[in-house]
Every structure is written in C-alpha cells, then in structure tokens.
Amino acid sequence: MAEPGDSVRVDDVENSSDDEEEDEEESSTESDESSAEESGSEDEDEAKSSDDDGDDNTNVWDSMDDGAQTEEAVEASLQADYTKALNFIVDGRKQKALTIMERLLQHPILQKFEVNVNFFNWDEARKEACANHSRVSAMARLFSSLHFNIGRLLDDPIDHLLSALTVYPNDEYLWKYVGEESLKIRDWSMALYAFGNCSSAWSVIRGTLIALYNANLFEDCLLKIKSVLEYDKTYFMGRVLKQIIRETNSYWEMKCRQVFNEDPALVQDEDAVKITEKEKELILNKIKNTGKFIAGVEPAFKPVVIDVGTCSNLAEVGIYLCDVYDRIESFSSFSKQSVVVCGTNVLDEFDEIAHDASVDLIDCVNVVQDLIDRIVSVETTQSASSI
C-alpha cells in the first residue's frame, strides 16, 4: 500500500508539468501575436514610405516640367523683345532699340555667354565651331545678334562685334566688318588680324594693304603686293603703292627690286613710267582718308548671294536656305535685305527640264485637240444621217 505522501508528490509533479505546458502555449501565442503585430506595422510603414516616395517623385517631375516651361517662356519673351527692338531700328527709333537690347544683354540667360575678348582663345573657338558645323543654340544666336545690332548703332562697334564673333568665330562678314571699323580708328594691328581671318576678296586685300602701309610695314606690304600682282598685273592700288614705297629712299628701292626680282641694271622700271604723280596722290589721299574711303565701299545690308550650284540635292538646298534665314535674322533686316539666287549649272538643268516639259505639253494639247475634232466630226455626221 502506498503512502499518502508519495501520491501527493506525484500529483504535484503532474500538475506542475501541465502548468508549464500551458504557460509555454500562452507565451508562444503571445509571441506570435506580437510578431504579427510588428510585421503588420512594418508593412504599414513600408506602404506609407512607398506612398511618400511616389508623392516625392511626382513632385520632382512636376517641378522639372514647370521649370522647363518657364525657361522656354523666358526665351520666347527675350526673342519677342529683340524683334521689337529690330522694328524700332527700322522705324528710326534707334535710341529706344538700343535701350531694349542693352537691357536684354543683362538677363542671366544671356549673361552666361559673356567672355573677356582680350583673353578669348580664337583658334580653339574656330576649331570647335568647325567641328560643330557652326551650329549654335537659340540663345547663343540671340546673344550674338544683340551685340551685332548694338554695334551698328554705335560709333565704335568693335567690342560688340568681337563679342558677336565669340559665337560665330568663322564668320568672314563679321571679321571684315571689324577690319573696316579698325581702319576708321587707325587700329592697324586689329585691322590686320581681322582681315587675316577673311578670304582674299578685293575689299580685304585693299584693307590689308592700307593697314600694312600705315603701320610702316613696308616689306610685308611689298610681299602682299607681289602675291596680288602675280594674280592680276593690272591691280591699280598695288602698282601705285609699290612705286610709292620704292621712292621712299634708296634702301626701299633696293628692297623693292629684291622682292620683285627686278634687274638692278635697269635705270627705270616699266611700272614707274606708267604711274603718274596724280595717280600716286590719289592713292595717298584714299589711304589718309581711310574712314571716308571705307564707309562708301558697300551698303549697310549687302545682298546675300545664294549659290544653289554648290548643293547636290534638294535637302542641301533646304539647309542652305535655313542658314541664310538665320543669318538675316541675326545680322540684318528682313525689310531691307535683298537676296540673289544663282547657280548656272543647276539653273541650266532646270531650264532643260522646263523646256522638255513644255514641248511634251504642247504635243499633248495637239493630240487632245485632234481627238476632240474627230469626236465632233463623228457626232455631226451621225446627226446629219439621222435627218
């Protein structure tokens, strides 16, 4: 028979084990509930954060779109003000136009194109322009156009022309303009540099000779005259300047013979016989009155020549015309600018096509008329027979 104390101890042990199992189940249940709550809160946080991110992204793109539209609107406003200034120039209200254009140059969008022309790397700019095929942005073109047109309204436009050239460093028209204006103020070094960036047009050759002679660079002047006379022996200004330099003193007489490979045994050069004192005086007066001489060389708006003969297809013609339009818009006036279209080969081909087409058309008309006459005659015959 078992003792009561032993049975009590066994029951206690069993009860205690049951209690422990219940406690473990409760604790596991509580831990599961807490983990579920935590995971739920984390999911809510992630959902909120994703919603916040979505809102942030939407706001960023909205702000970027608004900024782009604002910049486009500002650029359009600047272009409109520039057009208004050009209209004032055409109407003769130059001071009003000058005020508007100077104010436009102070705008932050255009200020970023301002450079110090005294430290500007022209060689690098010319190479870069060639690589980009001289394509520039609308605001860069506006910046250049503003400086060009402001320069036209001032007595000394050189600084503004140079600023315009920082955008179009290969534009020979602008360089020639700088050279001619430099001659007016007797800035020979600037004139020579500007003309050096132009092709060998006669106006450029004349300006170069004037600058070389006035700068007392007689040897360079003689070398330039030699290169021109090899191309055209009748070039009047070159022949006269050559004789004027020759008569300066014995040194330059000897130097002249060396440059032109003349025979020193000859007492008198053939050119010296042909050139009169009146002709020498005429050339010297032109050189001394450089400003007046250059001012009448060409009109303010020189006719734009469009040589379509250089284009091989219709697409190139379109590009050419667009470039001319941009040039007139930037550096001229649509109300005063004349345009000359040329191109012998292309026009001849068009003439042949037009001629052939006209012949074909005439043949076609004759054939149609012949058919009509036949139909009319048949109808007349039928009506007569019915009667």
UniProtKB/TrEMBL annotation:
GO terms for biological process: chromatin organization. Its main location: nucleus. Keywords: Nucleus. Residues 1-64 are annotated as: Disordered. It is found in: Nucleus. The keyword Nucleus applies. Residues 1-12 have a biased composition (Basic and acidic residues). Residues 13-56 have a biased composition (Acidic residues). It comes from the Eukaryota. GO terms for molecular function: nucleosome binding. GO terms for cellular component: nucleus. This is Uncharacterized protein. It comes from Wuchereria bancrofti.
